[in-house]
Amino acid sequence: MKCFVKSSFWTGWLLCLLGLINHSCFLRPVEPSEGPIKTLIIDAGHGGKDPGAVGRRHYEKHLALKVALKLKAIMQEQLPGIKVELTRETDHFVPLYRRARMAQDRAGDFFVSIHLNASENHETFGTETYVMGFNKGQEDDKTIVAENEAILFEDDHQELYGGFDPRSPEGHIYFKLLKDAFREESTFLAEQLQGEYREYGGRIDRGVKQGPFVVLYLSGMPAILTEVGFISNAEEEKFLASEAGQQYLATSIYRSIKTYNQSFKRKSDFGNR
Ligand SMILES: [Zn+2]
To answer: I need a labelling partner for 197 at 20 to 30 A (CA). Which of 15, 23, 89, 249 fits?
Structure first.
């Protein structure tokens, strides 16, 4: 009897404690973000049979995923009101059209594609961020061609992309007619991000550029493609492969998203989006 009383007291106390925890932690709803980004799509470039650019010791696909996963963790901790969705969380191949479809199906408000750059000149280094666009004379821009070449790993790319050949200079003329409806939002975030890389991450800022990237066009929402550094530069490859380097880059992206959401809040309040 004594034992029963004791156990019921402790059981009651435990239930009460659990109730308190439940009430204060588990059941407390997270306030959704007040800014225009309610759902962020993080896209780690390449994956599986598509390694992306190859450095001395690392593949682009692995390092891009590490930065993407770190960004997800920071976002969930710092901005829990924003839902975060990744187009891939493991090393597997995802066609570009499917990445865009996933972004739309998950009602994304912004698409951030994370890549690593490469150059034949191994001295080249720094960060650059692209928004969708087309400049005359960009037909053989190596970064654009390399990122769009991901579609060549897709068995049915001829059919899916209307015969678009990323290696053909004429192929890019196709994009000339396409207008980016989200130029203002995309450019704003891209500029914030380059500023963060420079000021917070201590990286070389190669600027905001525009280019006819298939994945940006297909996403159908404000979108950027950020090249977080050159894997072809031995020094930069070391930074990109380090935990600290990836954390700096992911934090730079998070900081730019935070600023974007605060700056565009008023616009979204008036329903201008
Ligand atoms: Zn890439």
So the answer is: 89
3-state per-residue secondary structure call for 221-261: CCEEEEEEEECCCHHHHHHHHCHHHHHHHHHHHHHHHHHHH
CATH classification of the domain holding 59: 3.40.630.40
pLDDT digit string, tens, across residues 95-123: 999 999 999 999 999 999 999 999 999 99
How far away, in angstroms, is 23 Cα from ligand 1 center? 45
How far away, in angstroms, is 37 Cα from ligand 1 center? 24
pTM, 2 dp: 0.85
Decide if 159 is inside a domain: yes
Cα–Cα dist 44/251, whole Å: 16
| Distance between Cα 16 and ligand 1 center (Å) | 52
Interval between CA 19 and ligand 1 midpoint (Å):
48
The predicted-structure confidence for 136-173, as pLDDT tens digits, reads as follows 777 678 898 899 999 999 988 888 887 788 888 777 66
Range of the domain at 42: 32-269
Instruction: Using the mean position of ligand 1's atoms as its centre, give its distance from the Cα of residue 146 in Å.
Output: 7
User: Residue 25: inside a domain, yes or no?
Assistant: no
Whether residue 200 lies inside any domain: the answer is yes
Q: 49 C-alpha to center of ligand 1: Å? A: 13
Number of domains forming the structure of the chain: 1
Residue 237 Cα to ligand 1 middle (Å): 14
Residue 19 lies in a domain: no
Q: Which residues contact 204 (CB under 8 A, 6 or more apart)?
A: 125, 126, 127, 198
| 35 alpha carbon – ligand 1 mean position (Å) | 29
